[in-house]
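Sequence in, structure out. First:
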Amino acid sequence: MPFPRFRERSIIVALASLVLLPAIASSQSAVISGHVTAAASGEPLPESRVVVIGTTLFASTNATGQYTIRGVPAGTFEIRVLRVGYAEQKKPITLSAGQNGTLDFAMATVVVKLQEVVTTATGEQRRVELGNNVANIDAATRTQNAPVTDVASLLVGQAAGVQVMPGNTTGTGARIRIRGTNSLSLVNDPIYIIDGVRMTSPNGSQSGNIFTGGAIQSRAQDINPDEIENIEIVKGPSAATLYGTDAANGVIVITTKRGRAGATQYNVFGEEGAIHDYNTWPTAYTLLGHTAAAPTTPIRCTLSTVSAGTCLSDSLAKFNLFKDPFTTPLGTGSRKNAGLQVSGGSDVVRFFTSGEYEDEIGVLKIPEFDVRRLDTTGVNILQEWRQPNEMTRSTMRANLNATPSPKLDLAISSGFIHLMTRLPQSDNNALGLLSNGFGGPGFANPGPGYTDVST
């Protein structure tokens, strides 16, 4: 019977094809194998992912760093190796049908940047989870690389939308504005949060700028910048949402330094220098002349008397109060600073202690003509008259962290600040020298200017 015989032969051919086709395909594919090790130590890197780019073929290295990728078709491919903590590496390979290839990789370590964490009123959050912009300033690094003397120096040019107008004399505070001025009549200063505690930092009349010529102080200037680890600036409506309506002008969140587990580290530092005033001060001019009736008697002319013809101008006198060594109220100031920081601890207890002393004398002084005048009248010149602008600051801080159990973390922060600031007092007669004129009796009798300098 021919029909059954033909059917049996068809079934046999089909079964043979199913068996032989994988063998034929296997003979035409290639195998890639090799080892993945660390470049520095040569140790094997298990769990490294080896991928054939452009295909779905991949493999992971075993405990000895070995990998094997089977079923690779003929052609030129690029093999990529990925592992956390090591730089990505790629190598090309060309395979022909049935050829096996070997590729070894020596991986170089790289620094892995962790996700940034921002501290807010609701706790620590990942930066990617925040719906608002928070500027972050690495204060610990900046104090080592820049001439920082106060908190305002840390903020200058470090965050978009933050304007810092530093004080112009020793001991005066800075005006800090976040996203400009928000009110013409109310306070525009941000609030300060130090290690989770709000600090009072009023400016203006609350800070004692009466009779100081407009020089203001700020409690924010009391903070020692060498004790700060990090500063975060919260802006916009989100600041008021997190910290209340008082934070409508923004929030400056300050985190002080903490100890880390390890050997005890000591940091001793100090500086000393001079302070000079390099401003260009304008020169005052006086028009001198005479009258027709008394041509030999010099008088001071004004524009009105010249136009009226009652004063005939013949000369011009000039005088710069700040360039004359006999009348200038500017001298050479000085600055001294010394401190010590100790930190360390174990996994259970960590500590950070710091102490610093700072003394800065401004450039203002009592003019030489007043010194001679007081000497001749027998008046004892007090030290605050000779140095009307001075600031001394002593700070101490102790931060302690303890982890008695995996579920309990204790933190204690303490700080002490002793600040003495002397600002020059304004005096309506301070320009008595100019009011008496120059080129005439004013030079011989400078007037009562600068005799009222006091604390």
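Second:
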Amino acid sequence: IARQHGIVVIEDAAQAAGSTYKGRPAGSLGDIACFSFYPAKNLGAIGEGGAVVTDSPAHAERMRTLRDHGSTKKYTHELLGYNYRMEAIQGAALKVKLRKLAAWNTSRNKVAAQYRRVVTGVELIPEAEDGVQNYHIFPALGQRRDDLRRHLADNGIETGIHYPVPAHHQPVFRDLGLGAIELPVTEMVCSREISLPMHPYLTASEIETVATKIGEFAKQ
């Protein structure tokens, strides 16, 4: 559809480093793809960072110009750009961590597999059928989500919410009148989603503990 109308497709691969879809790596599906290197991502820098990739020389040149205040040579600005140059120290850290990404993603998939075997009392998101995931987070859908989070916190288990406010309810879009739109699935997920602990170094016993405490809550 985009090709028919001359539209550039920008792929959001922010949290998907190392994932694949139908054999194609994340980052290769659109004309341009964006990755986030925020420290909490599965490939994170030691501070703020990100990258944009493309196989188009024209797009690449335009993005290089935009990231440097719209400048192609010093003190000359062809475009109204931004100060988006990433620090060299972030690139150095990412170069080291990139070598570990495949092993970390394998470990994350093992953690996810154990969660699927032992967790009851919440609804787990099904695995993708056409690709390989990397589990930046491990989401579940729980009844009485906030009470469940408190129960787990009382037992030393930290959880997150990704994300509590749907896009069409965000204040930035208020002038567009999107609040009147009904998206019941989106709103249900935002009200019930809970992110269970997920990182490459979770042990089997720690995962069992999470499952046990969720089970205790579900029986109440």
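Remark: The two ends are 50 Å apart (CA to CA).
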